[in-house]
């Protein structure tokens, strides 16, 4: 599965505990990463400053669903169940 352009559910729904440039304490669940641009693209994509957790996230149908709203819900539920 390929990432959907403009989705960014994985950059919004989960909490990230590792530091992110501009978010030294990571980010809470449901809060967009400060590194998202206006089109929901990652400003750190391909750069060494991008956190390993972000680079390790792989799009999967069970996590990303069939559209952005479903991905936000699925990832949010995973966060709620494992947080």
TrEMBL record:
Name under which the protein is recorded: YkgJ family cysteine cluster protein
């Amino acid at each position: 599965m390929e990432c959907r352009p403009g989705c960014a559910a994985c950059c919004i729904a989960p909490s990230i505990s590792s530091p992110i440039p501009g978010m030294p304490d990571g980010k809470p669940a449901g809060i967009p990463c400060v590194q998202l641009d206006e089109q929901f693209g990652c400003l750190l994509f391909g750069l060494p400053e991008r956190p390993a957790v972000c680079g390790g996230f792989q799009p999967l149908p069970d996590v990303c669903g069939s559209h952005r709203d479903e991905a936000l819900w699925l990832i949010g539920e995973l966060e709620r169940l494992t947080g």
